[in-house]
Amino acid sequence: MLPLVSIPYVSRILRPEGIGKVSFIDSFTYYFISVAEFGVVVYGMREVARVRDNAEKKQKLVSELLALHVITSLCSLLLYIVAIFLVWDKIQDIRLLFFSLSFLLVNFFSCEWYFLGMEEFRYITLRSLTTRMAGLVSIFLLIKSPADYYIYYAIIVISAIANSIWNNILLFKKVGISFAGINWQRHIRYMWIIYLLDIFYSIPLMLDNLFLRLMSTDAAVGFYALSIKMAKLSSVLITDTLIVFFPRIVALIKSENQKQLQETILQNIQLIILFSVPVSCGIFFLSDKIINVFLGKNFSPAVADLKILSIYPFIKSYSLFLSKQILISHGNEKLFLKSTVISSITFVFLALILSYYFAHVGICFAVIIVEIIGLLINYFYVKKINVQLKVFSWYYFFQALAGTLLFIPIIYIINKILVSYIYIIILSILSCFIVYIFFLAFVFRNKFLLQVKTDVGKYFLNKRTHQ
């Protein structure tokens, strides 16, 4: 995924139809990558976290999981080839197919799960920033006309391939990979649930563009694809933060430290509510300005999409918290699988029907409805496995909601003062953020913000003392 800052440039050069073509082949390819993963990402991250301090066990585990992934990738490749023949009339561009296939082949040795399990987040951040910035520069240098939509996809693919190759070089240097005498089969009985979970979970996440294109036009895919990308990017910082907590939660469950586990989970909840609620409200209030500035007048139909999807950051963040941080960390993949199967089957029906009648607006409603269904089911299962575990705080939620109500008069006044949409967005974000933080910190005495303030103060005090 390339930086959000590239979207305004791309949307003004490429037509909605071109962006629709790229979004379609990108979703198509990623789904088969998910098929190839066979649950290795979640399972590998968890297992690496468990054996991280045992070099011998870690070497054996990583070698076995890499071998298993290569085998499942070969199977996925065969399915991919068959599927290409079935949907070729929706692609009809050999260049897109070439880059799609290249990405699938390089992904045979995908190993991001290793670095997540080892909590090497500094490396992950540095690598991602480097490849994304290189991709961003390439977009500005190479995309000059609507016919360059295939170059846009090439940059997306090459950036992803660079991440994968970088991972492999570092992995093979750090871990002595050896495929001699390994027993990759032993992991299958533990992974099949996670695998089914990944397959069904990927349906609404990756096949949305595909379903929309089957029922509507490339232009409709273009309107929706950029809207959902902005909604997802708005929540990515929160969901990425949850990944940081995952190995810690697994370790606390293993040590049976219930008190510290509850404290960590409450920190997750406070973090999600504190940031996702204002983000969702801000997107809703500024959706017309955001579309106009980031995408241009040609994408004005996407305003309705972004308003519908504005609640996505909050719903998605909290749903991921319930599923991955609670259910999977507790080893309840079967319950998460049931939830995902119900949500995915519902999405297929809703996506096809609503896309047929309402095009891009219909698929937006399908996404939100299914996310809400999945969240409710996950919440039910979490309370079923541990009724005493506190996994939501209405107190902090209403605090956040009260803080976001202040956005309405602030944005109204700024709209009356300024004319330029870009200045309205910038000033609204800065003003709302400052007012929101101060309101929660000094009116409600929000514990999370006060703790952050205390930790930052201690950090600078220690730094000054050591100088």
Mean pLDDT: 85
Unreliable sequence segments:
none
**How many helices?**
19
Total strands: the figure is 0
The biggest beta sheet reads: none
Order of helices and strands, N to C? Answer: HHHHHHHHHHHHHHHHHHH
Give the termini distance in whole angstroms: 41 Å
Radius of gyration: 23 Å
Task: Walk me through the structure.
This protein has 467 residues and is mainly alpha-helical. The protein has 3 domains: 1-206, no CATH class; 216-392, no CATH class; 400-467, no CATH class. Helix content is 84%, strand content 0%. It is built from 19 helices and no strands. It has helices at residues 6-13, 16-37, 40-51, 55-91, 94-106, 112-117, 121-142, 149-174, 188-206, 208-215, 218-255, 258-294, 302-309, 312-328, 333-385, 394-405, 407-417, 421-443, 447-466. Helix 3 packs antiparallel against helix 4 (55-91). The longest helix has 53 residues, at 333-385. It is globular, with a radius of gyration of 23 Å. 42% of the residues are buried. The mean pLDDT is 85.
